[in-house]
Amino acid sequence: MIRTPILTIRNLTAVFPNDNGGLHALDAITFDVRPREFVCVLGPSGSGKTTLLRILAGLIKPTSGSFTFGHGEQPSIGMVFQGSNLMPWRTVIENIKLPLEIRSVPEQTAIAQAHEMIELVGLQGFEDALPHDLSGGMAQRVAIARALIHDPDLLLLDEPFASLDAMTRERMWTELSRIWQMRQKTVIMVTHSINESLFLADRVLVLTQRPGRIKMDMEVDIPRPRKDDIRYTLHFGKLARQLRGAIM
Amino acid sequence: MTKRLISILLSVVAFLIGWHIFTRYGDIPEFILPSPFSVWNRFLQAVGDGSLPYHTGITLLEIVLGLLAGVLFATVVGYILAKSRTLERLLSPYIVASQAIPVVAIAPLLVIWFKDGILSKVTICALIVFFPVLVNTIVGVRAVPIALYDLMNSLHATRAQILWKVEVPASLPIFLGGLRIGATLSVIGAIVGELVSAEQGLGFLLQLGDFQYDTAMVFVAVFTLIALALMLYGIVTLLEKRFLKWQN
Ligand SMILES: Nc1ncnc2c1ncn2[C@@H]1O[C@H](COP(=O)(O)OP(=O)(O)O)[C@@H](O)[C@H]1O
Ligand SMILES: [Mg+2]
């Protein structure tokens, strides 16, 4: 599977200014991402995972290093944040169409596309609900729909399921996997969970303690679609043990 | 809702009956405490000869202009101070100090500066409205979740889009709280100005009644002021109902 990378990341380093010489969050991160690849980033708290996503989303500048997308154009980004980060004053459909509003897409088209997204994430009937009436899982579906509606080049997910209960979380894995296969996106997803990364990813990167460096870069060669019970296979167990070893 | 209306109505009726009995059997001269009937008759008379509508109109004009100017100025300054810590640090001592000066004390000064037309009252009104709206604007804008800025920036939103789609709706609950206080204070501001010096307005009517031992007229003016204050309060409540539906 040799495809030219769509995203090349070279020596990304992030240092936040502080009183004693700066807080070193990321150190010389280098990796490539292939088109439509699903990459999970695992690492202990404070290893700079969120910082990495924020740099890729253009929210902060790296202290040094660079990343290039495709042929050097600015990628469009869909981002799912750790909390669902919805606007509480907007209904579900209004939240989902936000990215289209920002691009001044005509209202009619935006609404129609938002309805498509609502179907994709299975929220029919909740179009006009307000965020505080949604369960955690539903709110994250809205956030995923919002991140996808403008057909972004790159989908960035920051521990999107961390606040969900175990049952809901596993249902969301299946959902996300299905959506990813339908929409054919390049995804970088930060997670704490080894299981989650093995269910979803083509590749898992493990970061070290701060400053975050890439400690392991592992292909997940488990065939898709991955069913719930793959976790009981020997191969899954072997990969999980390797990841655990790298994180410890 | 109707239950609440009925209980309010009952308490008003009880108050009027109590008042009537007190004046009727308490042997109290009319110029000290007129009976509710003489106040009502005086009210009809003042409406009939056009004096009450005229003076109410003047006071209302002062209040509306003062409120508009005060709110507009406070919102703009508040937004700028919320965005710039440096400016806030430079200016806040002056703003706080200005609050230590009672408006009543500088009202004569303003009347000297702006003559005794309506401009001086509008200015006093605006000054008294300024502070609560300013403070709530600052607090409101500062309370906008940073994650929503991240969301907007990841979508390459413009400054104007961030203002209208995030900052305004997110700060509205706190801002309207300030407006509620400001609206009530604006009535006081206009009256303070008119009491210092005026040939028209409800404050003038109040003083005229006082000089002429026309106590019923004083009561008519006071009740009209209460009605104005309640109306403004009601308008802010309606705004909250309309724009903050999502909060409940
Ligand atoms: N804007 C910032 N300013 C200063 N320090 C920051 C900032 N953002 C993150 N950090 C610090 O950088 C380190 C990495 O943070 P983060 O990327 O959030 O880690 P993770 O997401 O892996 O838990 C942490 O120690 C955090 O406190
Ligand atoms: Mg994080």
The first-to-last residue Cα distance of chain B is: 17 Å
Q: SS-based structural class of chain B?
A: mainly alpha
Rounded to an integer in angstroms, the radius of gyration calculated over CA atoms of chain B is 22 Å
**Greatest interface and its residue counts?**
A-B, 22 and 19 residues
Domain unit count of chain A: 1
Which class of chain B in CATH terms? Mainly Alpha
The total domain count of chain B is 1
- Per DSSP E runs of 2 or more residues, the count of β-strands of chain B stands at 0
Order of helices and strands of chain B: HHHHHHHHHH
Multimeric state: heterodimer
Mean pLDDT of chain B: 91
For the record, the CATH architecture of chain A stands as 3-Layer(aba) Sandwich
Task: Name a few traits of the molecule.
heterodimer; A: 248 residues; Rossmann fold; six-stranded mixed sheet; three-stranded antiparallel sheet; 9 strands; 23% strand; globular; B: 248 residues; mainly alpha; MetI-like fold; 84% helix; binds adenosine-5'-diphosphate; binds magnesium ion
